[in-house]
Amino acid sequence: MNRCFFFIIVYNLFPLNLISQKSNLGRFEINVTQGCSPLKIEIVSEDVDSSATVIQYDFNYDINNPSFNPSVSSKYSYTTPGKYTIAQAINVDNTEKIDVIEVEVFESKKIDLIINNCLNNKLELIISDDYYDGFNLYVDNRFVKELNSGKNDLEYGVFLDSENKFHGIIKGKFNNNDESCYDVSFSVSSINLNSKPFIDSVVVSDDRTSFSLFYKPEKSTNYTLYVDGNIDSTYFSPSYIYFNDSEIKIFNKTFSDKYVSIEKNYLCQNEKIEDKIYLLYMNTYEVEEGVRIDLNYDNDFDSVNIYKNQKIFSSSKENNVDNYNLIKGEEYCYRAVGYKEGKKSISNTNCIIIKENHNPLPIANTFSPNGDGLNDEFKPFPRSVKDYNLLIYDMSGVKVFESQDINIGWNGYYDGKITQGSYIYILNFVFDGKDVNQRGKFLLIK
Question: Does the pTM exceed 0.85?
Answer without folding.
Answer: no
